[in-house]
Please model this.
Amino acid sequence: MDKVVIDGRMGEGGGQILRSSLTLAMLYGKEIEINHIRGKRPKPGLMRQHLTCVKAAQTICNAKVDGAELGSSRLTFKPGPIKGGNYKFDVGSAGSTTLVFQTILLPLLQAEGVSTVEFGGGTHNPFAPPLTEIERSFLPLLRDMGARIEIEAERWGFMPAGGGKWRIRIQPAALRPIERVKRGELNHSRLTAYCYNIPGKVGEREVQAYLSLREHPVHESRQRKPEAGCAGNLLAVDLQFDDHRICISELGQVRRRAELVSKLLSQKVKSYLDSKAVLDEHLTDQMMLPMLIAGGGRFSIAEWSLHAETNAEVIELFTSRKIECDGAIMWME
Model:
């Protein structure tokens, strides 16, 4: 088995290097050694959510692992065959379950049998893609590529307590390349304020403040109270175009005024609409590994960030295949 040695300080030096390396190790059957894990973060090493990613990857392929401990800066991971089945992974905090999901998703799509996975922990926190965006932005693109994935969110988990619970059902499928360079005209825009156990009229203030900014047409606005493991707030905009849809969101936080949450989200949405791109900064990162597994693809992007550049470097390190970018289009032949 080939062994790939990765320096966790490369590029942006964060947790994505670990997660992408675990995914690629399982998909290509390569042993990995990662040194200086999260080496450019204020608190380097494996934190709880990163350790859960390692444990989840280990479980689905019966990997031999050394260094899987909180705070560890070095890890070796030798994968075995990927096994579909019924799994349950709990971060045990408000740490992101969506990052655990992304680590094991593509390997389970290549497994022999159907998999059902239950996740416990954080679903909406500032340092990871929120479950709402995974469900409404990322998964529709994967389904267009041929993935057969069903999701059920029982309970959201906000910081600091977490307590979220959700499930995914994954049927093995081969991904096919897709091209998304034009999104078409904007047909519908929906603004939603999600509040759970938040005092005052936070959701109402967020909606009114957002509408008063008049940065783009809003065809529908509403407030919703999701089931959640602790108090929390999310403001989200769903954009439906002729050929694409995306959800962009902003988390409410303690001592952050509702009006500021609305302003920050409005700036995100305006930036995306002005870009004319299909993929925003976060989706650009998220679609790289599916594009690799599909054997190609072509997408217009809003930004080629250091995060994206680092992810592309990790992919090339494992496969010698290069994701190309000219600033406006990302592709792989």
